[in-house]
Write a structure and sequence with these properties.
It comes from Actinoplanes regularis. The chain is an alpha/beta fold and 130 residues long. The protein is built from 2 helices and 8 strands, in the order E-H-E-E-E-E-H-E-E-E.
């Protein structure tokens, strides 16, 4: 199998709000959209993100009314402190400010108005094999 790209699909109540948050604060560009749907990508080839509106008929019946929950979209960054400062300057207050885990990961969390959680992380030491 050859994977050409990766996409995460998230079900939210308000697609335009989540799409705008991802574009405004994480540099994503909306590639296409329609009623109840938006697909976003980054030029650098990071994971694409698709937002589906809750209740959208393209979703399997058992998932149509299930909003994103328990999912974290994570981005590894070069300068976590600078990213936290940038987000705060843009009016986004971290839902979890920077902290360092015992295994060497530094991270912060931000949450969009629909409850989509984004983690920004950097490694105090690069994990072996990377």
């Amino acid at each position: 199998m050859r994977i050409k790209s990766s996409v995460v699909c998230l079900t939210v109540d308000d697609v335009p709000t989540s799409s705008k948050f991802l574009a405004d604060h994480f540099g994503y560009v909306e590639q296409m959209s329609a009623a109840g749907f938006a697909s976003l990508a980054r030029e650098d080839g990071g994971v694409d993100v698709v937002f589906h509106a809750r209740g959208l008929e393209v979703l399997p019946p058992e998932l149509r009314d299930v909003r994103v929950a328990g999912t974290i979209v994570a981005f590894v960054v070069d300068d976590l402190d600078a990213e936290q400062d940038r987000l705060r300057a843009e009016g986004v207050e971290p839902s979890l400010p920077i902290r360092e885990e015992p295994w060497g990961e530094r991270l912060l969390l931000v949450t969009d108005p629909n409850g989509v959680v984004y983690e920004l992380a950097e490694w105090a030491e690069a994990p072996s094999g990377r």
